[in-house]
């Protein structure tokens, strides 16, 4: 297995601006969106208010959302063959959770960007002939 680095630095957290603001103000939404991308990489749109978002929020009320960040970070790192360790994942999640959530999202976006679209078939309306 080839080991790789993260595509974006942990401190490269100011771009894109909208994602940066979301990571700082509503990290639960960005976390849910990232999890949805991981679970369904071929979807054309992602529902951010999912179970991962709710778990993240619940843990956040107890000051423990960093635990879920670290667990997901390890999963992302292992799935994409990124160098690192669980200790590094936990330290990053504890001391820089917003930057970690943003880096994880950017990583999943960059590595699943060209995944095949797997949205289900949508039935088209029938054809009708107009009376003349």
Automatic annotation (TrEMBL):
Transmembrane segments: 47-71
InterPro entries from the UniProt entry: PLAC_motif_containing (IPR006461)
Matching Pfam families: PLAC8 (PF04749)
Statement: the UniProt record of this protein carries the keyword Metal-binding: no
Keyword terms: Membrane, Transmembrane, Transmembrane helix
Protein name per the record: PLAC8 family protein
Species lineage: Eukaryota, Fungi, Dikarya, Ascomycota, Pezizomycotina
């Amino acid at each position: 297995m080839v080991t790789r680095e993260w595509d974006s630095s942990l401190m490269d957290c100011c771009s894109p601006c909208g994602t940066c603001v979301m990571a700082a103000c509503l990290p639960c939404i960005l976390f849910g969106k990232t999890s949805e991308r991981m679970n369904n990489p071929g979807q054309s749109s992602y529902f951010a208010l999912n179970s991962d978002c709710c778990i993240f929020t619940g843990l956040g009320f107890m000051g423990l959302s960093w635990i879920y960040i670290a667990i997901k970070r390890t999963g992302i790192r292992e799935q994409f063959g990124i160098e690192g360790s669980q200790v590094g994942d936990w330290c990053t999640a504890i001391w820089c959770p917003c930057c970690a959530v943003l880096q994880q999202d950017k990583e999943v976006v960059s590595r699943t960007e060209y995944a095949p679209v797997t949205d289900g078939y949508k039935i088209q309306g029938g054809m009708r002939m107009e009376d003349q």
